[in-house]
Amino acid sequence: MSPRVLIADDDPRVAELIRDVLGMADFEVLEARSGEEALEILRRENSNRPPIDLLLLDIMMPGMNGYQVIAQAKEDPVLASTSILVATALTSITDKTLGLGMGADDYLTKPFDPRELLARVAVIMRMRRTEQALRQRNQELAALNEISRTVTSSLDLDEVLVATMRGIREILHVEAGSLVLVDEETGELVFRKTLSPQQGWITGRSFRPGEGIVGHVVASGRPYLVNDVIGDPHFLPRVDGGLEFITRAVLCVPLMVRDRVSGAIAVINKQDGPFTEADLDLLQTMAGSVAVAVENAQLYSELAEFAQELERSQAQLVQAEKMAAIGRLAASIAHEINNPLQAIHNNLHLAALAQLPEEKRREFLGMAQAETERLIEIVQRMLDFYRPSRGGMAQVNVNQVVENVLAIAHKRLEHSRIAVHTRLAPDIPPILAVPDQLAQVFLNILINAVDATPEGGDIRIGTLVTEDGEWVLVAFRDSGPGMTAEQIAHIFEPFYTTKANGTGLGLAVSYGIIERHGGTIEVSSQPGQGATFIVRLPVSPARVKA
After folding, report:
1. pTM for the whole thing?
2. pLDDT range class, residue 176, cuts 50, 70, 90
3. Domains, the chain
């Protein structure tokens, strides 16, 4: 199915150019001439057809402008997952980053080259496919976790099988029953559990696939129901019968996992009438649970392999979340860079005046140089933070890391009118850690605190070393609305978030980083009383896991 793109632009010539370019790349293209029409089409199409994949949005439109469209789309649960590419003739950093800060995925400056348009659209679609694959994988893991929780309430296979047979007997009201498993080494079938008037009936006895009704079910992989075994071609008394009762009817279903038969469940002689198709459906449903229990060892092996895959992708996930943190500061960073640029521009302009005394000219040039050095420091700080981690351990001054993070975020704090109170213990010993990873954790917790704290609120940050000298503690306390006990219980779970536009990965990644440093992150909070995050780091960890 071709990706679907909605062009929202009041200029028909621009819309036609985009439509032609995307049409040649096999995109399905829809058009809107205003923000209102774009939202109407998005809601209609996302409700009745496969959703719009990408909104290519002009900012300067009559009526509702592009920023308003972004705001409404991101607030609408039906439209929130729509990717947005902003196309604008506005060239200032503030204008460009405003849309990104509101939730747009990328921007394109007009006039643009068709090749750039296709390249940016391709990147967004690739990111969208990755996000969808991640969401699908998460859903699969959630389903897998639910199955494991229900079926493996006991990890003792014998207990599971006994409980299963007891449940079958109580629900189906049968005289006898048996559970047969395939011996992986010999290929024979073994009676693992039985229920019969005579305790221990045929338990442990083995036979070959194809023998009796049970052997036939295992060999064919298909269920079998017979209410009169006399004359049945598959009935074999030594397999399907008993010593203390006469077999009249048999219902047998295979145990199957991933199209592989691992055994069978058989029940004999329903006490209140013949076996029915409803009995067959019920037994097959129960057999699915038993089959999963039998296959637990293989399931855990697969989970172990998946855990290794997660470990390999950990570095990529950490870097992605690091970039997300920078993204949340994009508007503040742009403003922070713009200030020294304006100062440099003004000082150079004044220094160029012809009648200016030489002393004043040197003064203006000196101020321009100072602002240039300030700008270099800002950019270097950003570069140091978002570079992929090398993972190398070093002696780290935790206080210095906190101060660096505050320097990165101070514009965001300033814009939010949040007062930061620091109490950094001067006797903090250096710890062995990965510096940029600690900075990422501290920045994530700080940004969360800023998001939670109302304008004019306070954030308090402190460090100390425990009395035994074994641990360094870094505490972040905000004056926000606080959290419930239920929220705290889930706060470090991947994809759990209380924010409308959150990914739910920041604290999960942060917890993983601190855990690999041999430490912990603790949370204490009550509704209406803010929240405190305490990062506990060992002074001398054995090693930091990659």
Report:
1. 0.37
2. confident
3. 4-142 (3.40.50.2300), 157-300 (3.30.450.40), 316-538 (3.30.565.10)
